[in-house]
Amino acid sequence: MAEPHYDWAGFGFDTRQVHAGEAPEPGHGSRITPIHLANAFRFESFDQTHGRFAGTDEGQLYSRHLNPTNEVAERRIASLEGGTGAVVVGSGTAAISSVLIALLESGDRFVSTASIYSGTQILFDRALKRLGITVDYVWDPTDEAEWAAAIHPDTKAIFTETIPNPKNDIVDIGFVAGIAARHGVPLVVDNTVATPYLIRPLEHGASFVVHSSTKFLGGHGAGLSGVIIDGGTFDWRATDRRYPLLTDPQAPGVPSFLDRLGTEQAFESYLRLTVVNDIGPALSPFNGFLLQQGIETLSLRMERHLDNARTVALWLAEQPEVESVDFAGLPGHPAEALAERLYGGRTGSVFAFTVAGGLEGARVFIDRLQVFSRMTNIGDVRSMAIHPGTTTHLSFSDEKRGRLGIAPGLIRLSVGIETVDDLITDLANGLRAVRDAGLVPESLSLTGGNR
Ligand SMILES: Cc1ncc(COP(=O)(O)O)c(C=O)c1O
């Protein structure tokens, strides 16, 4: 693989989001990474061709597993998350399935926190189940006994998210990493909503990080993508659990990935060459380019997202038409202390609130919005609102929705980077419409502010 132009290790986050992983373009001196739409690359000789296939000559071969445009995004994200390497794929869902298929095979189990993104639950409960991989859910991630009961001898991974949505029920990654370490299981953390600007799960003991870079990393709402980052620290041989595709020779006389590349590099190479290459969730280099364009401004956008979200959450909590606000950074929230410790009270910009009037209140509110877009997706510059009960969580049973706290009046917001006063005016118009429709009970009107 191409060497980076400079080694950007040790530079600040803002410098690395612009420069880390960039490679020189000697042909024309293009300052930004060109879009290499090539499917495949020419070899200089018969021997080089063989070397590329044998893995003795590093370099481009075929874009299903490595592409020069995408490689810059991989290096940049690995740098921001503090990993040893990264692999980009076509979506966040592809990133999650790829890392789990790398760790698990038919007959294996893994444990996940229960409040993860609804689409990821559907992946676990439908597609992975069909492959013979079983998920066990933990409902209270602070309960060590529940974790211990969920981890079986054939459990080979733990999965969680830093800031789950819609409920903003933040997870203490260091605590979960401690449990994973005690059981000798790698911890995979979806850091989509927090981004490495807010938290770097590898620093808290996670083994791998995944992103739907469709969201905040890209930031523009143009182009799906996903990424898996390897922390390079999981000790594959120090655990009783077996990962033979990584630790054992796959053909007589051929050293295993681990023996050839060591703990720091083995997983990235294994994932790239024998999972992503075999299954084929490749990222279009065009989307890889868009992803890089987005990452360059991540810290600036996040600052605005975080400030706007906190302002909106505090304002919503004072409104008489609002029954409750699910934002962990709010004063009085049960997770306030954790929110303060991990995030300085700024727990991302995707959270929920419950409007008076239940389903009808939600309908009236959402139909009145103008600046907030009625749409799924989170984490682009635009503010968005959706009613989880009739959309993202529609396929869940009433019982499961109830257990997850998805009330009929619950609305999810992804707060964008627009002028915050305009966002509040838009929300105020929606709440006034709920009141005008006679959906706010007298008791709520009198309390004048609800947390
Ligand atoms: C936290 C989280 N992870 C993963 C995904 C899946 O990402 P994608 O839509 O890029 O497949 C999403 C999508 O909303 C998400 O919110």
The gist of it:
41% of the residues lie in helices and 13% in strands. By secondary structure, it is of the alpha/beta class.
Largest sheet: 7 strands, mixed
Spell out which ligands are present. Answer: pyridoxal-5'-phosphate
- Gross morphology is globular
Strand content: 5-15%
Overall CATH class of the largest domain: Alpha Beta
Average per-residue pLDDT, rounded, comes to 95
Per CATH, the superfamily of the largest domain is: Type I PLP-dependent aspartate aminotransferase-like (Major domain)
Assign the structural class, choosing from mainly alpha, mainly beta, alpha/beta, alpha+beta, or little secondary structure: alpha/beta
- What Rg is obtained from the alpha carbons, in whole angstroms? 23 Å
| Helix percentage range | 40-55%
Number of strands: 12
- What is the strand arrangement across the widest sheet? 1-7-6-5-4-2-3
Number of domains: 2
Order of helices and strands: HHHEHEHEHEHEHEEHHHHEHEHEEHEHH
Notes on the structure:
The protein has 451 residues and is of the alpha/beta class. It folds into two domains: 13-295, Type I PLP-dependent aspartate aminotransferase-like (Major domain) (Aspartate Aminotransferase, domain 2), CATH 3.40.640.10; 298-447, Alpha-Beta Complex (Aspartate Aminotransferase, domain 1), CATH 3.90.1150. Helix content is 41%, strand content 13%. The chain has 17 helices and twelve strands. It has helices at 13-19, 46-54, 68-81, 92-103, 118-130, 144-150, 173-183, 195-198, 244-247, 257-279, 285-295, 298-317, 336-343, 358-368, 398-404, 420-436, 442-447, and strands at 85-89, 109-113, 134-138, 155-161, 187-190, 208-212, 226-230, 322-326, 350-355, 373-374, 384-386, 410-414. A seven-stranded mixed beta sheet has the order 1-7-6-5-4-2-3, sandwiched between helices. It has a five-stranded mixed beta sheet with strand order 8-9-12-11-10. The longest helix is centred in the middle third of the chain and has 23 residues, at 257-279. It is globular. Mean pLDDT is 95; it is low at 447-451. Pyridoxal-5'-phosphate (PLP) binds next to helix 4 and helix 5.
